[in-house]
Amino acid sequence: MTVYLFLGDDEEKKAIQIEKLRDGRQAETFDASEATPEAVVSACNSSSLFGDGTFVLLRNLDAWNAAQKAKVVAYIGNPSEDADLVLAGTKLGAREKLLAAAEKSGKFHKFEQPTGKALVKWATGRARKLGLELPEDVAEDLIERCSGDKIRLAREIEKLSLYVGGEERATKADVDLLCPPGTQSNIFAFVDSLAEGRRGKAVEMLEKLSSNGEAPMKIMVMVRRQFRLISRASALFERGVPRSEVAKDLKVAPFVVKKLEEQSRKLGERDLERALSLILELERGLKGGSDLPELLQVELAVVALSGRDRR
């Protein structure tokens, strides 16, 4: 039996490969943020009740530190003959011993999710296999709503194919009806309304995020990240850096860079400095620096960030 190391951000391809390897066997699944390497190794050394080999899956490998990974490296040197172990994560350093061990004694695969035009091509191809015509502009809209999440994108394409049926061609109206924007899309809209001083819209978007179960602290973190990205993107665009290079530098998808460029045009340097200062003040309050209810703190920050209502 074998140890497999699956890295990369294409969760859909990982899931397909994992199911192929599992081949109907009962899987014993662990999450590295909760499980110890000893528990995973112990599961690998346990015999299957059905005699068809043990299948052990560890997700979120990135959560383990070097000492924890070292125990798996030791296991790879002397693996169980009756178990397949799949280690799934996002990335490992080029010099990490676990990566070297998997390349030498196991099987290593890297699954990188397509982005930009490649993701649009994947989406239209996936739709075509389901008998659905998905125009490129509609695919781009759908990708943005799914925040570039390929697994969610696959589900939404299947939903569209069932809904459109005999018409065979999806429209933006179909996407509007069936595919609600993901959290990242809502955050883009939220920050847009703040940048444009549309206080009413900003409050409306805050209510939507809150009703979707987003905690005040999480909303603050997402907004802080977005404004920081806008600030960094703005500086790069001022230097004449092309979108493709900005995407690599900020480690975001191309469609995200396009939105960042739009938002950076609406905010000057002083606006960004003020926004980041207000967000820092909000963060202090949410971490115990204020006696006000958390959601009220966020609402007050939104009023301050959006300035005069220009709706």
Topology as H/E string? EHEHEHEHEHHHHHHHHHHH
Q: What is the CA-CA span between the terminal residues?
A: 63 Å
Helix content: 55-70%
Number of helices: 15
What spatial form do the alpha-carbon principal axes imply? globular
Instruction: Calculate the mean pLDDT score and round it.
Output: 87
Low-confidence stretches: none
Roughly how many Å is the radius of gyration?
23 Å
| Biggest sheet features | 5 strands, parallel
Architecture of the largest domain, according to CATH? Answer: Up-down Bundle
Biggest sheet: strand arrangement? 2-3-4-1-5
| Overall domain count | 3
Query: For the record, what CATH class of the largest domain applies?
Result: Mainly Alpha
Strand content: 5-15%
Number of strands: 5
Helix and strand content put the structural class at alpha/beta
CATH topology of the largest domain: Zinc Finger, Delta Prime, domain 3
List the helices and strands and how they pair.
Elements: E1 3-7, H1 11-22, E2 27-31, H2 37-44, E3 54-59, H3 66-77, E4 83-88, H4 97-105, E5 107-110, H5 116-129, H6 136-145, H7 150-164, H8 172-178, H9 183-195, H10 199-211, H11 216-238, H12 243-250, H13 254-266, H14 269-289, H15 294-306
Helix pairs in contact: 3-4, 5-6, 5-7, 9-10, 9-11, 10-15, 11-13, 11-14, 12-13, 14-15
